[in-house]
Amino acid sequence: MKRLDDLETPALVLDRDVLDSNLARMRERMSRLGVTLRPHVKTTKSIDILRRASPSAPGPITVSTLKEAEYFFEHGVRDILYAVGIAPGKLAHAADLTRRGADLTVVVDNLEAASVVEAVAMREQVRFPVLIELDVDGHRSGVTPESGLLLAIGRRLSSGRGAFLHGVMVHAGESYNCRSDDELRVAAERERAGAVRAAQRLRAEGLAAPVVSVGSTPTATFATDLSGVTEVRAGVYMLHDLVMAGIGVCKIEDIALSVLVSVIGCQQERGWIITDGGWMSLSRDRGTSNQPTDQGYGLVRDLAGRAPPEDLIVRTANQEHGIIGRRDGQPPDFSRYPVGTLLRILPNHACATAAQYNLYQVVAGLDSTILATWSRINGW
Amino acid sequence: MKRLDDLETPALVLDRDVLDSNLARMRERMSRLGVTLRPHVKTTKSIDILRRASPSAPGPITVSTLKEAEYFFEHGVRDILYAVGIAPGKLAHAADLTRRGADLTVVVDNLEAASVVEAVAMREQVRFPVLIELDVDGHRSGVTPESGLLLAIGRRLSSGRGAFLHGVMVHAGESYNCRSDDELRVAAERERAGAVRAAQRLRAEGLAAPVVSVGSTPTATFATDLSGVTEVRAGVYMLHDLVMAGIGVCKIEDIALSVLVSVIGCQQERGWIITDGGWMSLSRDRGTSNQPTDQGYGLVRDLAGRAPPEDLIVRTANQEHGIIGRRDGQPPDFSRYPVGTLLRILPNHACATAAQYNLYQVVAGLDSTILATWSRINGW
């Protein structure tokens, strides 16, 4: 069997044991809270990983692109929520998926989009379930739970032709900026309360809103009560990353993903170890730069995934060069890192890093044996 | 014929006229300076684009990965410089390329790598031409032109077995931080002088160093004299981007690449237009953030590539959401950007943005007709 040492670098490594532990923890959590887990596949984009995330049946899922919807539908997943406000130019494609048997839910947050969804659905002779996107923290899209617009969109979707109101969804994106467990619990309750309130207002108008969908990995991890919520969406919990660890959502040991790199030289005077793991392999994501601990372009581990004796991070990166140094700026013991040494870099942001690869090299624990190679998709 | 309006967004758009003009300008410049242009294909990674960059014959080229080397070799390119210090684990692959007929040059900047190159070449029964990488500006890898190590590596490569010294190469990466034409001219001369000096020192020791390879798009654009240099490497000049415009290397009108996005909603109170062009489509690169003009995640153009009446940038981005606003923070005229409006986003960094796609949608000038679809590769 191949081992990590047999790979050309950079390569994307996934620790199956850590993955499975992350998956089980979130499943148990959602089960305890009495809600359906609708995993967001935008992080992992892999049917192999989804089958482990949802072992009883692959789905329901959340997607961020119609390409993900196509890929998972081809692999037998029917219940799909496309959780980005639908662009009119994508509706014909969405209708085609629906005609082929997908149970595809789309999202709107304005009257124009609601009207276009209805018009295209009628033209294409399909019926789209529609969720209204809510805004509870000023993060990006959505209407506020108390707005008149919420009810206006609900009524617009109540003609019974083409589209039908299916409920509400919200993503508490600002939870990524929380700095304590208490703040995370507050963010989770704000997300829950806003979604439930919006659904209640729609129902009070006589509009059906059976689905109350909330989620983000931070709020899913810290919610203590999900009364009134029907489903939770989360994605990065499967792999975790340094940003999640920085928020306090996971421990460093829960990070399942790493990038395998080779040492190609050093600059001893500057305290630099040079590798072939540049920003193309790690992504340009610097999500820890505004956290209490800035991890540079990633935190360094040895080939077995263990912390080296010195606290090393990827300090800077060019396209195909990574520059590793000690966090404290002191020179590392260069004798430990001769040319050809393999290292593993824990990523700032799993979604961004994984997107640079088509394959996961799957290992388990300290063993470098490659147990499987799992594919993933990218693009649109 | 298909038009940009027929595409699902996000999509990568390439203006062929701007590309051809960028290509011609650099070719003429290098011809005038009397050096060979060895285009760096790490930006564009497309045989279709290389054929326009080097119309007489596809090559010589510079690559940043062996995957690029494989791809271009399969398309008929023989003369390939792999311009990243070679990792020992890649040498068997490099030898295989050589055996199949590629004229592949590798790069080292230390004695360990030089020894490994020689040893693997002997084992694999090939001969690698080797360039010694130089450091003239403390940017990343390389030995200084005045160092004893330069000569030691040169001597190590002079056994005549397996590897042979072919010359020196340098990349003045710090030129990206220049802020004036004068600084750029100084950086270009520092790059030239360092490379020529290193080659002279090697030759004075009786070592052959016929190749003197320099390059970066900024220094290639501002060099006024390249005496002693044999070839220039540059890549991003083909497409240009906002970082290059910020340095003064190109005008905004020279940027050939853009990302087509759809408006999916707005948040009027916050002055935000929401699109489906998030950081996955634009890349996480924020290379203009430390330049005099911070372009956010990109500068907004209309469907035809023209500047809109208001100065709009992508202010923030989520994975599949882009948030556009006026640079001055004032609310835009929302009536101009209804749901479904198509916009084009000029990227901070062409290398990073193009890497999120497998295809270029090729247009010319103000016309939205798609004239061709060119493929590109990614990964390792």
Per-chain topology:
The structure is a homodimer of 380-residue chains.
Chain A: E1 11-15, H1 16-33, E2 36-37, H2 47-53, E3 61-63, H3 66-74, E4 79-82, H4 91-99, E5 103-108, H5 111-124, E6 128-134, H6 148-156, E7 163-170, H7 181-204, E8 211-214, H8 217-222, E9 231-232, H9 242-247, E10 257-267, E11 272-275, H10 279-282, E12 299-302, E13 312-317, E14 322-326, E15 342-346, H11 350-354, E16 359-364, E17 367-375
Parallel strand pairs in A: 1-16, 2-9, 3-4, 4-5, 5-6, 6-7, 7-8, 8-9
Antiparallel strand pairs in A: 1-10, 10-11, 10-15, 11-14, 12-15, 13-14, 16-17
Q: Can you walk through the features of this model?
A:
The structure is a homodimer of 380-residue chains. Chain A is of the alpha/beta class and 380 residues long. Chain A contains 11 helices and 17 strands. The longest helix of chain A has 24 residues, at 181-204. The two termini of chain A are 34 Å apart. The interface between A and B is large, with 66 and 66 residues.
Summarize the structure.
The structure is a homodimer of 380-residue chains. With 380 residues, chain A is α/β, with parallel strands linked by helices. Helices cover 29% and strands 24% of the residues of chain A.
Distance between the termini of chain A: 34 Å
Give the C-alpha Rg of chain A.
22 Å
The largest interface is:
A-B, 66 and 66 residues
In total, the number of strands of chain A is 17
What proportion of the residues of chain A form beta strands (DSSP E)? 15-25%
Low-confidence stretches of chain A: none
Largest sheet of chain A: 9 strands, mixed
Principal-axes geometry of chain A comes out as elongated
- Whole-number mean pLDDT of chain A: 97
Q: Find the structural class of chain A using helix and strand composition.
A: alpha/beta
Order of helices and strands of chain A: EHEHEHEHEHEHEHEHEHEEHEEEEHEE
In DSSP terms, counting alpha (H) and pi (I) runs of 4 or more, how many helices of chain A? 11
How would you describe the oligomerization state of the chains in this entry? Answer: homodimer
Helix content of chain A: 25-40%
